[in-house]
Amino acid sequence: MIDAFLFIGLPYIAIIVAVLGSVWRMRHNRYSLSARSSQFLEDRQLLWGSAPWHIGILGVLLGHLVAGLLPQVWASLMTVRGALLAVETIGVACSLLAIVGLGLLIYRRVTSARMQAVTTVLDLVLVALLLAQISVGLMSALSFRYGAAWSTGTVVPYFWGLITLNPDMAYVVDFPMLFKLHLTGAWLIILLLPFTRLMHVLAVPVHYLWRAPQLVLWNNARRRQQALSATIRAESRREFLKGAAGVAGAGGLLALGVSEKTLNFFKGPLPDSEAESAFLEKKLQRLQQTAEERKLVLERQRNEMILISRYADLSENKGQYFIDYTMAPGLAFKGKDGMPIVLSAKCTHLGCTVGSETNANGQILCPCHISYFNIVTGEPNPGAPAKTPLPQIGWALVDASGKVVASRKPGQPVQGQVEPALLPQCNLYITKPGRDTA
Description:
Blueprint: H1 2-28, H2 44-69, H3 71-78, H4 81-111, H5 113-117, H6 121-143, H7 147-150, H8 155-163, H9 177-192, H10 221-234, H11 237-267, H12 273-302, E1 305-310, E2 320-323, E3 329-334, E4 340-344, E5 363-366, E6 371-374, E7 395-398, E8 404-408, E9 427-431
Antiparallel strand pairs: 1-9, 2-3, 3-4, 5-6, 7-8, 7-9
């Protein structure tokens, strides 16, 4: 329930509040959109904080934006190891630059009496949230490397599902806690957007590039009050109605987009026969899939050995997939010595299924996060996101008469010998953990 709220409910709440709040603020308090300049209050620390903060955060946001808008192009680019390492390095550098810059800005704001006088509670909440968001993102990038490559298959489909009103939290619900905190922080920042000085990102003064020079003069409080009173008196009912119509129109368009999904969610399947048949067919498919899974579980509980392949079907370069005793994927190869190699196919990083084909170095690839595993030892390549090897699985070779002629337990040498001429007549079984096949 909490995952459904954080990854489906909170995003839509944040987007709706951000849209409606931004429209209201633009209509009724448009002069507060730009960030209030504080340079005249203190400019020494501002110089060293503002530049690295803006350079760093713009670099980070640019990488996220390109990956989200052009996922296929980005994924193709990230298959080049040099480009992947360059993007990861630039991302970490920009994150560090943003953290240093924002840290200086926070220090400036809390240590200067003049700055404290113009600082609101929401300003402090915002900068603290931004600092936490960037720090969590940096820790995630360092703890689970190559996110630039695997995010196009997880985070990007999740975001596009939200945009197209087909949310699917399955892409992110199994993420580590750091990633979940990073996603939640992003939605909280969007939620606070209309109520903070962060609104200035929506009011980039592009027209300043071609407008005529202006001379700004200081005035006193009396003149400001007179100007404000004159502005209020000049505001007509028609302007009020135009503003209300704008907000109503934006709300109507947003409601039109989500109404169908909301109604279908509460109403359930449509009562017509075609929709009901489709619903029952999907339900039957799920039941059949569940029955097959339960059948596999029952088979593994009853049998001490499970047939996975004929020895003649094994290959040195392409593994045979199977389901092990823990209902996880496994792979079986033929070793260079002729004996089988049987190991788990579940990546030790985040649990993705590794590929079945070996490269020139005898390694198989986890396509989710770019880890290479040696099929003989199970060890990942140096610097891979995965830190622990793929576990070995116990196996046994059984001849045509049903006799175990060779076997191996995880981490132990092969027991028994088989004549090479008799190997094609044998079948390969996996053995239940703890069973002695000797």
